[in-house]
């Protein structure tokens, strides 16, 4: 039921895949070095991913997602919105 005078809030902040990695890492209180130890991905590469200098990529997303205990899509598609009417 729609109410007059109300409208859906607009998203005001875009989050990149690299930023989503950083956010998830910080939420779990992990340093880049700790995440590196958990994943085998060099700390310098994690830094480059978080700063959007290196593409995340699907395989790295899978490894990072396991360590960060989230679905890889959370990292790869952070801004994805699903229209509830068209979702299966």
What does this structure look like?
It is a single chain. With 88 residues, the chain is mainly α. It has a domain at 17-76: lambda repressor-like DNA-binding domains (434 Repressor (Amino-terminal Domain)). It is built from five helices and no strands. The chain has helices at 17-27, 32-39, 43-50, 58-68, 72-76. The longest helix has 11 residues, at 17-27.
Average pLDDT over all residues: 87
- Round the Cα radius of gyration to an integer and report it: 16 Å
Which band does the percent of strand residues land in?
under 5%
Largest sheet: none
Number of helices, where a helix is a run of at least 4 consecutive DSSP H or I residues: 5
Structural class: mainly alpha
**Annotated CATH homologous superfamily of the domain at 17-76:** lambda repressor-like DNA-binding domains
Cα separation of the termini: 21 Å
**Shape label:** elongated
| Share of helical residues | 40-55%
Uncertain residue segments: none
CATH architecture of the domain at 17-76: Orthogonal Bundle
And the CATH topology of the domain at 17-76?
434 Repressor (Amino-terminal Domain)
SSE topology string: HHHHH
| Total beta strands | 0
- CATH class of the domain at 17-76, please? Mainly Alpha
Condensed summary:
The chain has helices spanning 17-27, 32-39, 43-50, 58-68, 72-76. It has 88 residues and is mainly alpha-helical.
Structural features:
88 residues, mainly alpha, 434 Repressor (Amino-terminal Domain), 5 helices, 0% strand
């Amino acid at each position: 039921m729609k109410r007059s005078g109300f409208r859906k809030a607009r998203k005001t902040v875009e989050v990149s895949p690299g930023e989503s990695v950083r956010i998830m890492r910080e939420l779990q209180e992990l340093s880049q070095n700790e995440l590196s130890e958990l994943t085998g991905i060099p700390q310098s590469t994690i830094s480059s991913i978080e700063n959007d200098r290196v593409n995340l990529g699907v395989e790295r997303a899978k490894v990072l997602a396991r360590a960060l205990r989230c679905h890889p899509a959370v990292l790869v598609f952070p801004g994805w919105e699903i229209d509830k009417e068209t979702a299966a």
